[in-house]
Amino acid sequence: MSEELEKEERMYKSIIKTIKQAPLEEFYASGHRTCQGCESALLMRYLAKISGERTIVVGATGCMYVANTTYYTTSWVVPWVHTQLGGSGGAALGTAAALRALMRKGKIKEEPINVIVFCGDLGCADMGLSGVSNAMTYDYNLLIILYDNESSANTDIQETSMTPYGAQTSFSRPGTARRIMKRRWKKSVVPMIIAGHRNVRYAATTSPAYPLDTLNKIKKALSAGGPTFIHSLDPCPKGWDYDPMYSHELGTLAVETGIWPLYEYIDGKIIYNEPTKGIVEGRIKRKPVREYLEKQGRFSHFVEEDFEHFQKMVDEMYESWEIPGVMPIKSVELARK
Amino acid sequence: MTQVAEKEILLNGTQAVAYAAMYADVDVTAAYPIRPYTEVMDTISKLIADGQLDAEFIVAEGEHGQFEIVKHASLVGARTLVGTSGVGWLYGMEAIVVTATDRAPVVAVIGNRALDDPGAYGVEHNDALMVRDVGWLLVWVDTAQEAFDTALLAYRIGEDPRVLIPVGVSMDGGFLTHSEQIVRLPDKELVKNFLPPYDRGKLRVHPDNPISVAPQVNEDWVTEIRRQHDEGMERARTVIKEAYESFKKTFGRYPGTTRDITMPENPFVEPYMVEDADVVLVGMGTVSKPMKVAIKNMREKGIKAGMLRIRWFRPFPAEDVMKYLANAKVVCVVDRDYSLGSPFRGGVVYHEVRSSLYDLDERPKVLSFIGGLGGREITIQDVEKIIKIGVEQRDTPLTRHTYWVNVRGDPW
Ligand code: SF4
């Protein structure tokens, strides 16, 4: 069997079919002080669970740094290192390159060690993007995870390029002269990664509200070989202004309204997952975006016209807009027929 | 048994450091282009391509990434080489600072270059000096031989468990980065005796050693951590001395010298005709060349001039400065940098020297000369002029602290 095929086999054979098959051990344990209902914390738990003991985790500045690694109470059971806000790509490369060199030169034992770097909106999508992109051009085994809470949550909820249209943050507050301060549309990072980096064999979007899907995506990313990328939309009760008990509900609504399509890119193919698959195949009808937006305080200033605009933009994404790569979703389906 | 060097080769300053990195068997290098440091990476890449060095060669997306790469590689236990110049050094500054605070002993070549704007390729020391307060070891070299030797020493000193601090090997852009000189390369086996493998011990990031590096401490621990860093910096003084002695023992010559030329054996400074001098010039890097010639010329005219070249700027050799300058009447510090708005509008080295002399019972007068910025030459005539001003100021009450050397429209 060719090495490629073997890799693929490994990737699919190891799929977790029920949550009971997930490993019991936790490598992201107690000790953190994230907010109640923090979906990013859950994402960290998933990634540590799947990657296991033979892992080095690097975290860029952001909520998951500040809230997770208070000195003496760090929640990381595996080795963990901080990197600067824009340092994710360099940190990933440095760690992976050191392991490769030291193993090749017989300075440390040869074995597979997972290198995972997580970064938030700023550390991955804004100032850190060029470094992340550079890391994706090399062939080191590494996984970069963008945990997206749609703001700079750690510094008190400021606008980033990931903040949705119209959302209130302390940088985008509605006023009497201007109701909508955040007028730019959210950036799409996974399409950028897959369109621009041929080395990337696996990239995906996830939502912690779909645990099995998320666990498997991390698993596949770690076994794909080479640089891989995951973008996770993580509801944040503090920044989105809702009761923490609704985190999962908002996560599912983001997918069901079509705002956050779940898909994975494997070696040139796009595969839709969970409800998104049904939506794309026409079996499930998208819920109105209003259902998602109305449940969050950050959109409380929306009037009819804003809901309509938001809906129109999401509709376009399915009809004619470029997602999840260089084609509109509908045309992917048309091409398959 | 002590052996002498194996072979001689023509190298410029940056190439010499690349060769030292090859002898040190570095594991990871990170490159990003900017003149004039770049040739160190050109050379490393060729050494790797030719199979003379087994290392990962990563081209970063910028200096910030470049320093993050080596910092993290170093934390995992890899020996690393990196470098930059001028505004590149500043672009990487955030990562450069945490390289020190995370105690990653990377070795960086800084090919000194003026800071933009306006753009200029030539030497100015303000780039490297940006880290003087944040915990890097900083050394200025004067010849390609010294560059080679100092880079080897840098690995030995920075990686010492008592130190664990990154080292910046600074050299004058153009004057040293691009001028070729004969360099004596040692026997590879001897280098193994001199330079033990890099071992971070309990601080190594590896699944067998699951530590957390640089967690959030808020206000609780920063003071203690800075203090520990400072203690490492202090211990470096001892480790530097030991390393220079061990270098001499291993290779049969003092660092920075070839077999033929002898140099006073002090790791921190190079004194030149300083013992009986009334007027002592102080500087860093290749300015020592015109200084030495000018001193000889002035001595022929009966003026007792001397020089003290600062080699290690961090930790700053205050004791040596005191020792060698105690008997001087006037000290003329020639800065290839400036500190705008500083006391008496002086240069950076001037302030360090002046402060080092404060506790002397009889203090010499200290003058600041700012010159050669952006790569302009400091000529022998310029230095002679500086010495003359020193002599003039010797016997009168000090009338002026700072002079700009050879500024257009300014009588010089
Ligand atoms: S602010 Fe948001 S992302 Fe940060 S810890 Fe709280 S819930 Fe999580």
Could you walk me through the main structural features you see in this protein, from its secondary elements to its overall organization?
The complex is a heterodimer of chains A (337) and B (412). Chain A is α/β, with parallel strands linked by helices and 337 residues long. Chain A has a single domain (1-326), classed as Thiamin diphosphate (ThDP)-binding fold, Pyr/PP domains (Rossmann fold). Chain A is 39% helix and 13% strand. Chain A has 14 helices and 8 strands. In chain A, strands 2-1-3-4-6-5-7-8 form an 8-stranded mixed beta sheet, sandwiched between helices. In chain A, helix 1 (3-13) packs antiparallel against helix 8, helix 2 packs across helix 8 (211-224) and helix 4 runs parallel beside helix 6 (129-135). The two termini of chain A are 31 Å apart. With 412 residues, chain B is of the alpha/beta class. Chain B folds into 2 domains: 5-249, Rossmann fold (3-Layer(aba) Sandwich), CATH 3.40.50.970; 267-402, Rossmann fold (3-Layer(aba) Sandwich). In chain B, 37% of the residues lie in helices and 18% in strands. Chain B is built from 13 helices and 16 strands. Chain B has helices at 13-23, 39-49, 63-76, 86-91, 93-101, 126-129, 144-158, 188-194, 222-251, 288-300, 318-325, 348-356, 380-394; strands at 7-11, 28-31, 56-59, 80-84, 107-112, 137-140, 167-172, 181-185, 212-213, 269-272, 279-283, 305-310, 312-314, 330-335, 365-370, 402-404. In chain B, the strands form 3 sheets. A 7-stranded mixed beta sheet of chain B has the order 3-2-4-5-7-6-13, with helices on both faces. In chain B, helix 1 (13-23) packs parallel to helix 7 (144-158). Residues 1-5 of chain B have low confidence and may be disordered. Strand 2 (80-83) of chain A pairs parallel with strand 9 of chain B, so a sheet runs across the interface. Bound molecules: iron/sulfur cluster. The site of iron/sulfur cluster (SF4) has 12 residues of chain A, from helix 9. Residues 34-35, 38, 40, 63, 67, 149, 153, 236-239 of chain A line the site of iron/sulfur cluster (SF4). Chain B: Residues 20-243 form the Pyruvate flavodoxin/ferredoxin oxidoreductase pyrimidine binding domain. Chain B: Keywords: Oxidoreductase, Pyruvate. Chain B: It comes from Metallosphaera prunae. Chain B: One of its GO terms (biological process) is response to oxidative stress. Chain B: Pfam families: PFOR_II (PF17147), POR_N (PF01855).
